[in-house]
Fold Acyl-coenzyme A oxidase.
Amino acid sequence: MASMSVKHAIAAAKKLRSLQERFNPGGSDIYPALMGDEAITALIPSGNPLSVHILMFTRALREQGTDEQYEKFGRRADNNEIIGTFAQTELGHGTYLRGLEARADYDRGTEEFVLNTPKLSSYKWWPGGLGQTCNYCIFVAQLYIDNEAKGMAMFVVQIRDEETHMPLPGVHVGEIGKKMGLNGVNNGFLGLKDYRVPRLNMLMRHQQVLPDGRFVKSPVSQVSYFPMVFVRCMVARQNSNYLAQAATIATRYSVIRRQSPIEEGQPEPKILEHLTQQMKVIPEIVTAVVYRLAAANLQNMYNETAEAVYRKDFSRLPELHALACILKVATSYDSTYGIERLRQACGGHGYLTAGNLGNIFAMAAPACTYEGENSVLYLQVGKILMKNWSQVLAGRELMPSMAYISECSKMTSFPQWTGSWECLLKAIQYACVGSIRLAFQSYNARVQSAQSQTAAVNYSGLELTKAAELHGRSYVAGNFYQQIVNSPNKHQRSPQFQKVLENMLELHLIQIFFRHLGDILRFIRITEDEISALQRRLEEVLKELRPDAVAITDAFDFNDKILSSALGCYDGNVYERLFEAALKHPLNRKSVPDFFEAHLKPFMKENADNAKKSKL
Ligand SMILES: CC/C=C\C/C=C\C/C=C\C/C=C/C(=O)SCCNC(=O)CCNC(=O)[C@H](O)C(C)(C)COP(=O)(O)OP(=O)(O)OC[C@H]1O[C@@H](n2cnc3c(N)ncnc32)[C@H](O)[C@@H]1OP(=O)(O)O
Ligand SMILES: Cc1cc2nc3c(=O)[nH]c(=O)nc-3n(C[C@H](O)[C@H](O)[C@H](O)COP(=O)(O)OP(=O)(O)OC[C@H]3O[C@@H](n4cnc5c(N)ncnc54)[C@H](O)[C@@H]3O)c2cc1C
C-alpha cells in the first residue's frame, strides 16, 4: 500500500507542479500546496505520504531557515529533489514540547551539532513519510550549549543516502505499524546516535548559534511553533472538505434509496423525505459550508501573518494562534462526528467499504489528534481567553476576533428575546462571555490562592474548555452571519441564491442554539413558547432546504473519482455499483470457498457424528 501511495503521490505531485506553473508561476501562495495536497490526498484513499513534505518540511525550510539555508535545502525540497518530513513528536512526548528528549549538543571545536535520541522514549515517532519515503527531515530537539538547555531548535537532517536510500550511519529508521486509516502514509520512527550535522544545519532565521557557541535567542520563541499553525489552518479546510464529501455521498444516497411509506398505502418515499433523515443530513451539508468559509478566512489571516512575520512583525501571531487552534478543534471534531452521523444515515450500505464513508472517517478522525490534540488546544484557547478577560477588566481593547467579548461584557442583562438571527448570534456570544466570566472566577481564585498557572489551568480545565468551545461557536457563527447578511458581494447574488444562503444561516444558528441550549439558559431567560417557536422554525427550514440539498452538494463539485463511493456516484446507479463491487470480492472468485473442505465440512461432520452418538 505504501509503495502504491508513493507512486500515485509522485504522479499527482508532477501534475501539481505543472498546475502551479500554469496558474501560480513561482507563487508562494499556500493554495497550490494545499490544493496539491488535497488533490493528491483525495486521489489516494490510503493517504498521501508526501503530505508532511508539502505542508511542513518545505514550509519550515522557507519560514524558519535563513535565505542561505533556503538556497541550500529549501529550493531542492520545493522542487521535490529531496523529500522530507517534520520530526517533532516522540514515542514519549507529543503535546508537552518542553518535555521532548531528543537533544542537540553544540561542539564548538568542529562547529557541529551532535544529535541524539538518548532513550527509547526519545525516538521520533509518527512523522508522516518518515518510515520509508523521506531521505531528509526537520529534526526538532532541545538545544544544549555547554550542557545548558536553550530551548527547542530545528535541524535539517539527512537520514537516507540520496542514491541508494539506505539509512545513513547513526540512523535507525522505520515504519511504526498499521493504523486505523492513512496506511499509505508510512508514519515512521527515527533514532539518532551521535549523529553529527554542521552548525548551519540548524534553522537560524529566528534564533542563532554563532561559531564560538554564543546563542542568540529568538525575539519571539513562539515563532518556532509556526509550522504547526500552518497545518492547523490546513486541517480546518481539509476536514471541512472531508465533511462535504461525506455529505455529498449521504445526500445522493438519500434521494436514491426509498424506504417506509410516510402515509399508509402510499409508495415508499426517498428516505430524505423523512424529517429525521433531513435532520441527519442537511445540517451536515450546512456545517461543511460554514467551516469552509471560516477556513478560507483563516487562510487569508495566515497569509497576512506569515508575511508580517517575514518582516519581523510578530504582533498578529497570538490572534492567529488562538483562531488556528479553535478552528482546527471545531472543524476536526464536528467533521469527525458529522461523517459518522452521515454514515449511519445510509443504513447498512453505509458500513460497506464500497460506500467509502468509513475511509473518509478514518482520514478525518486523526485530525482531532495530530497538530495538537484537541483538548490540549481547547485549554490553549481557554488560557488565552483568561488573559483577554483580564484585559477586559482592565478596560483594554481586545483582538478583533474577540471584540464581541468586550461588547457582551458591558451588557448588564440580555435584551428582550426576539428570536432573530442577530438575537440568536448574540445569545451564543453572551453565553460564551458568561462562561468566560465563570471560568475566570474559578481560575483567578486558584491563582490568588497561590496555585501555579499550569495547576490553575488544570483544575479549571472543564470550565476553560467550555469557554473555548463557545468561543469557537461564536466565531464560526459570526463569520457565517457576516458572509450571508453583510457580505459586500451580496447584491451580486440572485434572490434565489441569497434565499438558500439565508435558509442555511437560519438552520446553522438554530442548530447551534439547540446544541448549547443548556449553556445559554444559564445566562438568558427564554420561555417555553420562545423555544417551541424555534423548534417549529427548525422543522420548517429543513423542509425549505430539502429541495436544494442535492444542488448544494453538487456545487461542492467532487467528481466520482474523488468520492470513490458506490452510494454517492453522480449517475445514481447505487445498487448496480454495490453489486459490481461485491462481485469483485476475492471470495466470489470460486463458487465453493477453499475453507469448506479444509474446515467447515469436517466441523459440520464432526457435529453430526457427535449428535448421532448422543442418540445411541
Ligand atoms: C491539507 C491537508 C491538511 C492536513 C492533513 C495532512 C497532513 C498533515 C498530517 C499530519 C501532520 C501532523 C504533524 C504533527 O502533528 S506535528 C506535531 C504537532 N504537535 C503539536 O501541535 C504539539 C502540541 N503542543 C503544544 O502546542 C504545546 O502545548 C505548546 C507548544 C503550546 C507549548 O505548551 P507550553 O505549556 O510549553 O507553553 P504554553 O504556556 O502553553 O505556551 C507558551 C506561550 O506560547 C504561546 N503559544 C503556544 N503555541 C503557540 C503557537 N503555535 N503560535 C503562537 N503562540 C503560541 C501561548 O499562547 C503562550 O503564550 P503566552 O501565554 O503569551 O506566554
Ligand atoms: C495520523 C497522525 C499523523 C501525525 N503526524 C505527525 C508528524 O508528521 N510529525 C509529528 O511530529 N507528529 C505527528 N503526529 C503526532 C501528533 O502530533 C501527536 O500524536 C499529538 O501531538 C498528540 O501527542 P501524543 O500522541 O503524545 O498524545 P499525548 O500528549 O500523550 O495526549 C494523550 C492524552 O493526554 C492528554 N493531555 C496531554 N497533555 C495534556 C495537558 N497539558 N492537559 C490536559 N490533557 C493533556 C491529551 O489531551 C490526550 O487526551 C501525528 C499523529 C497522527 C495520529
Notes: The first strand starts at residue 86 and ends at 87. Residues 275-310 form the longest helix (36 residues). Residues 298 and 527 are 37 Å apart (CA to CA). The chain is about 55% helix and 10% strand.
